[in-house]
Structure formats: C-alpha cells, structure tokens
Amino acid sequence: MNQETNYVKRTQRDYSMSFKLQIVQQIERGELSTHAACRKYGIQARSTIVGWLRKFGTFDGAA
Q1: Which end of the chain has fewer CB atoms at under 10 Å, N or C?
Q2: Entry's InterPro entries (predicted)?
C-alpha cells in the first residue's frame, strides 16, 4: 500500500509566483518558519525562501 506524505521534492523551476508569495505571507504572519516551510513544501534550500523574503517580503532585509 502506498503511503502519502506532504513532502514533495521540487525542482528549481517549478515555483509559481503565487506559490512564492503564499509562502512569504505565511512566514511574515508567523505561521511558518523558513525551516518549517522547507519541510512542509519540499523546498530543498532555506536560502531559496530567504531570497523570496528579500525579493517579495515586507521585512527590512535581515531574515
């Protein structure tokens, strides 16, 4: 029997803009940490999310 998990391994190119913004918003609202977002959404590098926060977030730089 196949057991489903929430973990989906992704490649560099398949993150939509809405996906990125959704994650940035969840982190900024305090619903997720960058590490939790990596685990939940199968993002391989935390630095990917940090880059999205710098690019799309409302934080003042330091993430």
Answers
A1: N
A2: InsJ-like_HTH (IPR055247), Trp_repressor/repl_initiator (IPR010921), WH-like_DNA-bd_sf (IPR036388)
Give Cα 62 to chain centroid, integer Å: 17
Q: What is the mean pLDDT of the chain?
A: 83
What's the pLDDT tens digit per position in 26-50?
A: 999 999 999 999 999 999 899 999 9
Looking at residue 35, its pLDDT comes to 96
Residue 48 domain boundaries: 17-56
Structure tokens at 28: 């900024």
Q: What's the domain count of the chain? A: 1
Domain membership of residue 52 (yes or no) is: yes
Amino acid at 36: A
